[in-house]
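Interim report, section 4.2 (structural modelling).
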Amino acid sequence: GENVEQHPSTLSVQEGDSAVIKCTYSDSASNYFPWYKQELGKRPQLIIDIRSNVGEKKDQRIAVTLNKTAKHFSLHITETQPEDSAVYFCAAPREYSTLTFGKGTMLLVSP
Amino acid sequence: NAGVTQTPKFQVLKTGQSMTLQCAQDMNHEYMSWYRQDPGMGLRLIHYSVGAGITDQGEVPNGYNVSRSTTEDFPLRLLSAAPSQTSVYFCASSPTRLAGGPNEQFFGPGTRLTVL
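Predicted structure of the assembly:
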C-alpha cells in the first residue's frame, strides 16, 4: 500500500516568513495529493490539492509543488500569519477517494 | 446542508463495553469512511464504504465493525472496547470518483473516545 512520509514534524517561523512542508510517497501510480489544515480540536479541512497532470498550483499565499519523478510534493506558505498556526497533513490516495496521511507538521507562527 | 455530522462529541467507556459512533451526511455522497487520529500518527483509515450495502477494510480495521444500509448513514461499532481504542474518530464522505482521480474528503467534527 501507499506510504507517506512528512517532514518536519514541527516548524516555528516568525510572522511574515515563508514555511515549507515536504512529503514523499511510495506509489508511482498515485495521482492526487491534498493538503489538510487542522486547528486544535477541529476537523481537518482541505486547503489545497494537486493532481498529477500539473507541477504547481497556487491559491493566494499557499502553493503546492509536485515532482512525480522523485515522488515528492511540498506545501509552501508565504507571508505567514499567526492564524496559519495549526497542524498540516499531506495525503496520497488509497482506494475510492480514501487517503493515506502523513503524520503531520505542527506549524507555529510567532508574532 | 449540515454536511457530515457525528454523534456523540465525547464518550467515555469502560474496557469491554460496546458502543456505536454515528455518522451521517446530507450531500448524497456515495463514498464514506472512518479514520482514527492518535497523537503523532496522523489519520489512519479504519473502514470505508462505496455505497449502500458495500463496505471494506482499511489500514486498522481490527476491533471495529461497520455497515451501510442507507446512503446517508455509516455507523462505526466497537464490540468490546479496549484502552488501545482511545482516540479521536473522524467520519468522512466524498462524491464518486472523477475520471481524473479521487475527490475531496469532507470530514465530520469528530468523536473523542476514551476507554478506561
